[in-house]
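Render this sequence as a predicted structure.
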Amino acid sequence: MSKNQLFVGDNLAILKALPTSGFQLIYIDPPFNTGRMQERTNRSSRQSETGRLGFQGKLYEQIVQSVLSYDDAFADYWAFLEPRLEEAWRLLNHTGTLYLHLDYREVHYAKVLLDALFGRECFLNEIIWAYDYGGKSKSRWPAKHDTILVYVKDPKSYYFNNEEVDREPYMAPGLVTKEKVERGKLPTDVWWHTIVSPTGKEKTGYPTQKPEGVLRRIIQASSKPGDTVLDFFAGSGTTGAVAHKLHRHFTLVDQNQEAIEVITKRLDAIGASYQVLR
């Protein structure tokens, strides 16, 4: 029986049935909250099910309520995302890492809330993925980056090995030795990487597809061969495809039929074995 799984359905219900501490790495690229519809909503406070203390010793739920009260549109979005991130915390093993991929509209709210959920000491990095394609605004600085927030389950025992990460060219090769130029430099927290080319072999046609190069860095640094990677907003299946190529196991979740068709076609093309569970 394959250790790779593709679940079809609502990810929250599926996450609740997955084993605690079962994953070394979780990468998610949830739908960005781009609409910003300002509609009044009511969200009553509730007691923390976990009892974890958060930012500055305050209860997690108090932080959630104070941030959600700032923006009603975000409250709707976070009411959707928050319980899924609570499950992500449960599902990570003690050496595990969460990578949350968002854009500029939500990332600053998410940072505060993840500080409360994971603990501020568990914040590892803010990665900036910068690119230079698409429309160019003439009324403001064009937005050409996404942000990936990185949190670890245990700041004293998390796994990270940047020596396994693909190196990149030096921007000023004349300032370093020939040996260093040939080897390349380790990436920093700013990643210059092109988007998926509309005419490239990697393109699946899925609208929010992320490039394999970005996922390669994440999976190489924060997991080992044989570990299991989880992506519960699987979309075009990039996480699963890269995990397979790097000899990791994967668990993918999506409920969109278009996504499932893209994922299965992509995984079949690279010879990955997996179970489809509905």
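Summary. The mean pLDDT is 87. The first helix runs from residue 11 to 17.
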